[in-house]
Amino acid sequence: MNPGASLRRIVALTKVRNLEFLRDRSSLGWNIVLPILLVLGLSLLFSGGGKPLYKVAVATQAQVLTAELHPFLDTRYVDFIRIDSADAYMDKLIHHKVDMMIDLQSGQYWVNESSPKGYTLERMLVGTQGPALQRSVVDGEEIRYVDWLVPGILGMNMMFSCLFGVGYVIVRYRKNGYLKRLNATPLTAFEFICAQVLSRLLLIIGITVVIFGGTVWLLDLRMQGSYLDLFILTLVGAVAMIALGLSVSARVTSEELAGGLLNVLSWPMMFLSGVWFSLEGMSPLLQRAADIFPLTHLLNGARAIMLDGAGLGDVLYPLVALLVMTLVFMLLGATWFKWTSE
Hints:
This protein is α/β, with parallel strands linked by helices. The protein folds into two domains: 3-45 and 144-336; 54-138, D-Maltodextrin-Binding Protein, domain 2. Helices cover 61% and strands 8% of the residues. A five-stranded mixed beta sheet has the order 2-1-3-4-5. It starts with a helix and ends in a 6-residue tail after the last helix.
């Protein structure tokens, strides 16, 4: 194999695919406008009728949280999360992932003085007729909901673009005979897959960088970590989701089936990967199940960098998980790939 000729074929096919996408004005506009509208709309209004308004971590040896332990635990619209140790949850209180923490063993409670919800909960706690708890305070800069939300919105937009922009397109190519014609050329399956990954990666990263820059300027987003670290993590996450889309479309010949399979993957990711809300307090089984999705690791790492100032060493687990997923998905896609619909 001539490496130079192979590279030229990959570059040519990448250019063709990019031009095809850029000329589709409706798809291009949708990829840019939708996440911006979602970020702006949800940052102004986020309502969850009937859902708990507050999260309180309660350290206790009891397995079930009842009002018998303390009358405050009977308060409505408060999500009480049982924990074994207050120390393990201190960072979550500092970063506003929970609004208050109570240790029923030591008779203490902690609030973050910069948290409006913590202030309200303290007033509610003081007003209950129960055992007195000693007040303690932690400090931490306020994290707005929009600061937490933006990584989720951008990650969701990347997920849909990676899965449907690669998976659905390849199935369409196979169905209309485009892949069969490519198979008659010197182009190999490896070169074709590389070109698809490169093309989608360039487009997704370009669009995401533009949208992220706009939201940082418009909303004054919190950014504690390094932009370079965030870019590297985003790059690895995008490749993992593109590879997932390729593995789904490797042999599928029906656009309807491809759409169904991609929806089966994307919708659970949208709700279980922490796009809209934190999984703190959810079932441990549900939290472990969310780890099978690349979007979960991308969002966990991105929020750690943006909100907590983490470096690449601190997000090593999400990075390694994404790299392993990329390798698995690429191997599956290369093994299953076929040119024709027959």
